Amino acid sequence: VGMACNPFVCWACPPQETVIFIESCGKFSKVAYPGCNCVIPCCGQAAAGSLSLRVQQLDVRCESKTKDNVFVNVVVSVQYQVQKENLWDAQYKLTDSRQQISSYIFDVVRATVPKMNLDDVFLEKEQIASDIKEQLTKSMSSYGYLIIHALVNDIEPAHRVKEAMNEINAARRMRIAAVEKAEAEKVAIVKAAEAEAEAKYLQGQGIARQRAALVAGLRESVKDFTANQSDVSSKDVLELMLVTQYFDMLKDVGTSNRASTIFLPHSPAGMTDAAGQIRNAFLQGSVGSEKIHAA
Q1: Average pLDDT of the residues of the chain
Q2: Of the candidates 215, 224, 265, 267, the residue with the CA atom closest to the CA atom of residue 245
Q3: Residue 73: helix, strand or coil by DSSP?
Q4: What is the pTM assigned to this prediction?
Q5: Residue 79's pLDDT is what?
Q6: CA–CA dist 66, 171 (Å, integer)
């Protein structure tokens, strides 16, 4: 605030959005608005103080305990302004407006937060701010102050409480991830088992059809051979063909580059056993083919 004086007159020049209170012999006389204002010291006039008409902000940090016994620091920011029509009340009814606003904030926070759990304090931040603004508006309006906004900017529990909350959240997410991973593995195992069962089923059908085709071919060969040779039975022809195929197999195994060493009984008795085993296999294939066609 600018002041210029001579022996008889002083000039008070408050800046924009600022007012000065002029008193005469200790009694309120007038309000000096921005510009040049005459103050007569010889008549007992003097500048008693000034007020800013701009929007001001007060940041308050308040500690309180929640319902689940956790201490938290609640950081509240209040934006307020002096009402131009109530300048006298703002100047003379309060000694320290900022201290008064802080007291009301402490009162609201310490009356509201202890009714909530820690998680609810974070969720109800807007409600806490609304309660603070409502209480301040009701109380400070009679002193010439307008409460514009009340904001809960931060809620700070103890560092160890933060770490515990993070660990709880991490454990919950890991449990969900483990369940999802197990479900995925279960689906993969089930699908693999279904695919294996389907493959074996199709493989069985293919083997049965292959054997049925071989039996049908042998049947036709035996039929053609016995039609021209009446003194040879079907059993003799079948055994002859099986032995022929046996020797063809030995030839293929011996000439193959990827063949391994194979030990086979090659005595006459072993040949008879091999012929019997091959004949039984073709008979089983014939039975399987009939079942497939019946189905």
Answers
A1: 79
A2: 215
A3: strand
A4: 0.53
A5: 93
A6: 24
Q: Give dist(CA 58, CA 102) in Å, integer.
A: 8
- Model confidence band, residue 239 (pLDDT cutoffs 50, 70, 90): low
Better-scored residue on pLDDT, 12 or 175 = 175
**Tens of pLDDT along 145-181?**
999 999 998 888 877 877 777 788 788 888 888 888 8
Residue 38 pairs with which residues in a beta bridge?
11
Q: Which residue has the tokens 């083997």?
A: 207
More confident residue, 285 or 262: 262
Residue 264 has pLDDT above 70, yes or no: no
Q: What is the pLDDT of residues 186-233, one digit of tens each?
A: 988 998 888 888 888 888 888 788 767 766 776 777 676 666 666 656
Work out the angle at residue 247's Cα, subtended by the Cα atoms of residues 245 and 250, and round it to the nearest 5 degrees: 110
Sign for the CA dihedral angle at 88, 89, 94, 98 comes to negative
Six-digit token string for 288: 């399987």
Q: Exposed, middle or buried, 231 (CB in 10 Å: 0-12/13-18/19+)?
A: exposed
Which are the contacts of 81, defined by CB distance < 8 A and separation ≥ 6? 53, 54, 55, 56, 145, 146, 148
Start-to-end CA span in the chain (Å): 109
Q: Is the pLDDT of residue 115 over 60?
A: yes
- Round to whole Å and give the CA distance between 180 and 41: 85
Q: Residue 26: which residues within 8 A CB-CB, separation 6 or more? A: 44
Residue that has been written with the tokens 């400070």 in this structure: 140
Sign of the dihedral through C-alpha 132, 134, 135, 138: positive
Instruction: Copy the structure tokens of residue 61.
Output: 């940090």
Write the DSSP assignment of 214-280 as a string of letters: HHHHHHHHHHHHHHH-TTS-HHHHHHHHHHHHHHHHHHHHHH-TTPPP-----SHHHHHHHHHHHHH
Asked if 45 and 39 touch (Cβ cutoff 8 Å), the reply is yes
Residue pointed to by tokens 């006389």: 29
